[in-house]
Design goal:
Elements (H helix, E strand, L loop, with lengths): L2 H23 L5 H9 L22
Length: 61
């Protein structure tokens, strides 16, 4: 076994890992999670209220 055999084996293993990750990411079990994450920017349940740190005094006009 020479270096080219090891490189070929590594390439095949990396490709199998890539296919596994793609299959995992696009599986039907994750569809609900992805749909919820896609709707987050459109969710306006709570109004934006800027938070002022407690140690910072409010400026009076």
């Amino acid at each position: 076994m020479d270096i080219n055999d090891l490189r070929s084996l590594f390439t095949v293993l990396a490709f199998i890992a890539f296919i596994g990750i793609v299959w995992w990411a696009y599986s039907d079990r994750r569809k609900k999670t992805y749909d919820e994450a896609a709707m987050l920017p459109l969710d306006d349940d709570s109004p934006f209220v800027p938070q002022v740190p407690e140690n910072q005094e409010r400026k009076s006009s």
